[in-house]
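Backbone description:
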Amino acid sequence: MSTPDFSCVITAAEGGEEALAASVESVLGQSLRAVEALVVLPAGAPAALRKAAGALAGRSPGDVRVLDPGTDSVASLRNAGLDAARGTYVLVLDVGERLQRHACRNLWQAGTRTRADLVAGRWSRLTGEGTKEREPSWQHPLFLRSRTVARFTEAPELAVHDALVTGFCLRRAALERHALRYDEDLTHSGVLFGALAAAVVGRIALVRRRIVSGRAVPDPGRDLAGVVEAHRRVCHVLVAQGLSELREERDRAFLLDTVVPLVRTLPELPVADRERIAETAARVLPGCVPEPVLLSLAPVERVGVRLLERGDADGALTAAYALRRRGAVAAPLSVADDGRVYWQGGSDPVFDVTGLGHQYRSFGELKLMNRLTRYETDGGRVLLAGRLVLPAHTGPDPDGPLTARLEFRVRDGSRTFHAPVATLRPDATGISWSTRADLTRLLRPLGPRDTLWDVRMVVEDGRNRSVSDLFAAHDLVGPGDRSPALPRLGRAAGDTWQPYITLRDHLALRLESRRRPARTARRLVHYATHFRPARRARLLARALRRRRDRLHARGFKVSVYRSWLLRLPVRKGSVVFESHMGTCYGDSPRAVHEEVRARGLRLRCVWSYADSPDGFPADAALVRRWSWRYLWALARAEYWVDNQGFPQHLDKPSGTTYLQTWHGSAYKRMGFDETRVRMQNAPQRERLRQAVDRFDHFLVRSEHDERTLARAYRLPEETLLRTGYPRNDVLLAARARDEAEGRLPRPALAAALGLPDHRKVVLYAPTFRGGPGRRKRRRLLLDAARFAERFGDTYTLLVRTHYLEAASLPACPPGTVVDVSGHHDVSELLALTDVLVTDYSSIMFDYALLDRPIVLFAPDLDSYAAERGSYFDLREKAPGPVTATEEELFAVLARLKAADTGCQEQRAAFAAEFGGYDRGEAARAVVDTVFARHIVPSRTVPTGEAGR
């Protein structure tokens, strides 16, 4: 008999006949034909499972073998499979796991090409939501590309995470040479086996393809002791290899991948299971992970781990609520003499939650945990009781009238019923409350539509208002807590209120039909809405909705615009302004508009907005981007003015002049120089070319712009206006004012933002790091909380994200960190800023005109330049210090005056090279050139900064 290329060992210790059949069928369906399946049955396998295994072997006698080693241990079954394997490579599957169609071929080709003893690829596991699967997040960097490593330390994720529990194969000769076996005294022996194999074999090949799917949902709570023991043994292997640093990474990953998710699941478990897990954790977790590793976790994560380690089931449950509801205060907080804030439980550094920033929020601003402790029914009346957590630093006004009420809100928010809370007992750490509510009389839903109701509590003290959901463990309420219901349409529309706990852990009520009249009515309604005429009516309504939606679809609007609207005559003197695709009223289009307004030109100005018209000029016509009015305005406008680009699919009318002010000089490659564009197909590149060909005027501010932007977008010489950027006129005016009068008083915007004069202002404005698509939320590279802690007394940090991105800022002391991402005009922010911190944003070219300090914080400079490409070496021409870490940045800011002294000449050269055409009169020059025929000489007056 020929030797197969692969032997796939399938242990049938758990799961049923269908799971076994799925695993075996995935092996038999491999595109690599020389593959055998070894089904290893436990001694206690039921008859049905044995019969299914026999049927699979009988159907493919040469490819499927059934082994019965007479043991029930999973490790023993796997070892029996390894002993019986005949293939060049051996792969082990748990029952239910399935190989991808080309899995064995991909592994075999990688092993043959690299002569590796171990070949591994991606795998996915079930999420617990039906058949949905997901790969662990740490797999992406590990398998980003196919590669070969000489030793597993070159791919540390193999040992740091449980990467080799499935989805890998071993050369059988290496198995025998190193005597690799599964430890039969270890329940989770697969965790240790993979790590040990990676440590002892030589070359390892990593394949970026997915190998295995269908891995079971991890359940560490079922055998926490076995999971912890497997982790300990892997750590011993790392220490024996002299890899103590990997052991620390492994410890941290173990907490994040296993223990913290276990804490998160506690609200979904019954009380008995929570107590069993806590009892086991108290026995096996202490000493498992060094204290410094635990302290490296986020505050609530380490609190949850420590409470579980102590065996405090109720405390760990509270931490789980805080983990599942970000930003919620789930336990009483105490403030130490040094200002540090601690979770209930003492001054243990693990319980230090100062970084959450709760101490900077007041009673009405905090999301307080309101834990429901009792829900008891008596006919239609329900007793509800709970406790609202209060931190030590804030609470309701002790002199005010303390009142509370329960709100029952229909899920869509259209209707609300209120019930007063009868008893409130405030103390130092919270407010205990209880009340009785007659749900039958209080809640009068219509019936068919409003069947889901959420419950929350509102507490007021005369000045402040705190709203909180009622949190509870999922086993607090059940079928025995039903109450009768009386909908407005009668009991035929529903007759029972069933309480339940939502996936977000708060109390809700569901209107159900449990008695015969209601069930009959429900069936009749179902029939009336599903028999043939009703189905036809629904199909007709759906078709009408599709037709209506088509009228608002962009594709239809573009066709109407091109076919009909472009035939309309141009309206003389009409100008459509747009800034950053309608997201703001700012930049150079604003400067041009205000110059037009100040000079009294007879132009009809129209501004487009993307989401909200707030902040746009009241004296201009406003149109929503992509609305019919927007298309009408563009089709009839004599002038288009924007800084980013009107939609590419909209052709410019023949009688329209397009002024493209652009939005910044280029460090990273743009246009046809950009790798992303060069990789596009011909129609996509042609669409970009047609969009650029619409420009009649393109503003440049230096010879650098001519060499980069003009060439990258293939702009003809006659379109270039060498005027500088109108948005920068205000900066040059501010510099002149600084030199003549000094920096104080600051502009009025400083008072509006609450910026005190005794603190310097640092503006952090990172560049756009995404690609085309919707607005995305990203994590800032600069830790704002650390900045506030370090420099809160001397600096105020203004954070402005790119208009296509957003970021969540941590809670910080008042006045230390301010989010100005929503401010319309960045030039106003630059004028009041003392120090700019950025990375590769074009904002540095503008700010250099002010001759104020610039610090570049670029942790990923080399990789960013390699990925996006650049027009010059930033380190060589930088207008200020280039820092790669937060510590370097903080060191520069701490000695800013000394650090900036050596950068003044370089900053002046930078401003001269990249802003040579900026002279402070760009708006006037642009208006004189583009709107020349609308200028009446007698009405032309000097404006300078008019309107700004």
Observations:
- Residues 283 and 309 are 8 Å apart (CA to CA).
